[in-house]
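Summary for the steering committee. One of the milestones for this cycle was to obtain a three-dimensional model of the protein with 2-acetamido-2-deoxy-beta-D-glucopyranose bound, which we needed before selecting residues for the alanine scan. The sequence and ligand used are listed below.
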Amino acid sequence: MFKDAISLSFFLFLAVSVTADPTFNDDVLGLIVFKAGLDDPFSKLASWNAEDTDPCNWVGCICDPVTNRVTELRLDAFSLSGHIGRGLLRLQFLHTLILSNNNLTGTLNPEFPHLASLQVIDFSGNHLSGRIPDGFFEQCGSLRSVSLANNKLTGALPVSVSYCSTLNHLNLSSNQLSGRLPRDIWFLITLKSLDFSDNLLQGQIPDGLGALYDLHLINLSSNWFSGDVPSDIGRCSSLKSIDFSDNYLSGNLPESMKTLGSCSSIRLQGNSLTGEIPDWIGDIATLETLDLSANNFSGNVPFSLGNLEFLKQVNLSTNMLTGELPHTISNCSNLISIDVSKNSFTGDVLKWIFSESSSLSRFTLHKRSGNDTILPIVGFLQGLRVLDLSSNAFSGELPSNIWILTSLVQLNLSTNSLFGSIPTAIGELKLAEILDLSSNLFNGTIPSAIGGAVSLKELNLQRNRLSGQIPAHVSNCSALNTIDLSENELSGGIPGSIGSLSNLEYIDLSRNNLSGSLPKEIEKLSHLTTFNISHNKITGELPAGGFFNTIPLSAVTGNPSLCGSVVNRSCLSVHPKPIVLNPNSSNPTNDHAFSGQIRKNVLSISALIAIGAAAFIAIGVVVVTLLNVHAKSTVARHDTAATLALSIGETFSCSPSKDQEFGKLVMFSGEADVFDTTGADALLNKDCELGRGGFGVVYKTNLQDGRPVAVKKLTVSGLIKSQEEFEREMRKLGKLRHMNVVELKGYYWTQSLQLLINDFVSGGSLYRHLHGDESVCLTWRQRFSIIIGIARGLAYLHGNNITHYNLKATNVLINATGEAKVSDFGLARLLASALDRCVLSGKVQSALGYTAPEFACRTVKITDKCDVYGFGILVLEVVTGKRPVEYAEDDVVVLCETVREGLEEGRVEECVDGRLRGNFPTEEAIPVIKLGLVCGSQVPSNRPEMEEVVKILELIQCPSHDLE
Ligand SMILES: *[C@@H]1O[C@H](CO)[C@@H](O)[C@H](O)[C@H]1NC(C)=O
Ligand SMILES: *[C@@H]1O[C@H](CO)[C@@H](O)[C@H](O)[C@H]1NC(C)=O
Ligand SMILES: *[C@@H]1O[C@H](CO)[C@@H](O)[C@H](O)[C@H]1NC(C)=O
Ligand SMILES: *[C@@H]1O[C@H](CO)[C@@H](O)[C@H](O)[C@H]1NC(C)=O
């Protein structure tokens, strides 16, 4: 029982003390033993000292002044942990035991209530666990109040609870108690408050509650109770507060409730109650809070609601109520909050609200007599802080005396049929934090007086017919965090003053007629998370850096004259200076100077290709002539490769070039004999061109033995700094062997020309398979195998510290057996040192739609995750058969978003390539699409590693199909 901490000598001491000191009583012994069982990390019980025989001075102990015995122990929030030991049972005169808000653990000791004197037990806010023992309530003695709230108690409530006939307060809330309420619970007729909220109790609330004539408060919220609200609840004539919210109660409100003569709070929200809100609700004259939201109430709201003159909060939201709101509500002059949102109310609610209230406040209307000080207004709107009429069918105009709402904090009128203009008086809602007028028919301009609403945090005016300019005065609302003005007819420029709203996180101005360029000032908005200006007529350059590099294309699309890396359109007008490269220069310092000059967004992809081509402008045909096959065979031994000197004649058809350059050919296989024919010509001509990419042109040719290879001529070769670097990279790539990675067989180097000799993959690119004219529709199985192949190839590359940087459908090749092979990897790295990363992002990784958002320079580190993004887009492309970005009439369709929307709206299956005609397993397709979306996440850290992707795909693959 006792902790080791209590040594033998301590007991000896106790024994001696007890005998030696007549004042030493059981209280000291009990408390010291109790303390010994606890951990007291902050030494809060330091004053509990066994040598001090008077516990009445100990912290937390209160004694009876006459008997000097401890009657109260109050240790609320002492940071104590450990078990509640039996030592306390020694305190025979204890009537109040408060150990709340500590860290106490273990199960309940059933003996405590047996202490004859004990009246109050408060163990709330600890970590007590296990069931409430049957014995706990068996001998309650004189218990008045028990709180075990906020622990981890489980199991059913013991029936013995009904024995505690003296109990006034029982609080078991926030535990994990389960099972039904024992019917006998209502034998506790002296109960004043009962709180069982936030447990797992279920079944009907048993009959007999009406016997509790003294009950003030009953809280059964957040359980699983079902059935009716007890029909005799009205007999509890002392009830002030009823909370049955968030259960599964059904049926009508019991009529007996109308006799609840002192009730101030009724909370029944979040059940399945039905029927009309009864007329007698107006009889509960003391009512201050009425929450019937999220039920199935229907019909009209009774006029009698206006009888509730003390009503402060009324929430009827999310029911099926119809008709007009009774104007008698304006009699409820104490209202603070009205929420009738999400019903089917009709009528011109604002008209009567404001006219009724102005008639009520008749002697306050001289407010505007040349004196701007707001005089007190008497009227039911005076104290109103929340008015939520959203999602109904209300009509009418917003009245100009809206300034009456002097206390208003939240005004939500969204999704109704309100019309007319927004009155300038809106600016007088000085305390308003949320103003939501969205999805109505408001027209006219946004009044610049809006700047007067200085507390505004959210301004939602989207989906109306507002026109004119965005008032610059909006910047006076310095607390603004959200502005949504989308889907209106606003025109003119975006005011630069918005840049001073430093708390802004969310701006949506999409689908208006806004024009002009983006003000520089918006770059200062450091908390932005959403910035949408799509579908306007904004021109000029998007800001670069920070947040603006991460915005998705969809947020800026539909502005034909906008430029910047996000829209993949270079701002040439901003940097008009063309860059001319001397293609024949072999002087590396010149090249360097050139690369230093490259500015972001200057080179277009076609320029890069042109630059590459310019170096060999004469080459329609490149003839690789192999000479001196036997030379330098010693190097081969070092290199485990055959190093050959060969000459390259840069010839165009019949005119052999005069200046022959000697280069170096390395074949990794060591098969020198492949080229072992003097004068063998490998012809690379236009007819054999397989394709062009950001890095070069690929030709098909045959080796001497007739084996086909794909030879890639780097068109960006002028940017490669050193042979050493090039060769180092090539050797690294040459070691890679994986069935899903195209093998690099060798390379050729001269200062001005580099060739990469790759395995030839016969089936052509994935792009051709998906979008080519002659494409035969791939089956689902083939598609899946391609996806998993790409994933394995990428995972292998990542495992070898190679980031692809340039993943797209044209860089995935399919061999004769349908196996996917990733190609064109690792080259970006060679160029990355020479080129600014921004150029790489926009240009080399040119394929629109595959580029990971973070690729767009500066702040974010580029990792393998940019490949995962490209992979995600590829997955969607393979599944849907659509290009990552498609241009429709005057719209840009971004695949990733279409699919994401499809997924959100549950139309995933429609996203799958129509050519498959439903011929695919949904149980594979859906997870594959989801995986694609996750990989295509905007945030790099949200994307999985490729290795995980492979594992996931292997799991997704249905075993039955595996066998096919
Ligand atoms: C409860 O104990 C845990 C660790 O046992 C500790 O982290 C926590 O701070 C304690 N809480 C209080 C209120 O003392
Ligand atoms: C029950 O205890 C919890 C936690 O201490 C408290 O928040 C709640 O107000 C109590 N209920 C009643 C009716 O006093
Ligand atoms: C406006 O009214 C307030 C309160 O009645 C008064 O103190 C103030 O002097 C008035 N100001 C003017 C300019 O009349
Ligand atoms: C707003 O619409 C109303 C009709 O609903 C029309 O009478 C009024 O002229 C319109 N106002 C403006 C500024 O377009």
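Key point for the committee: Residues 780-799 form the longest helix (20 residues).
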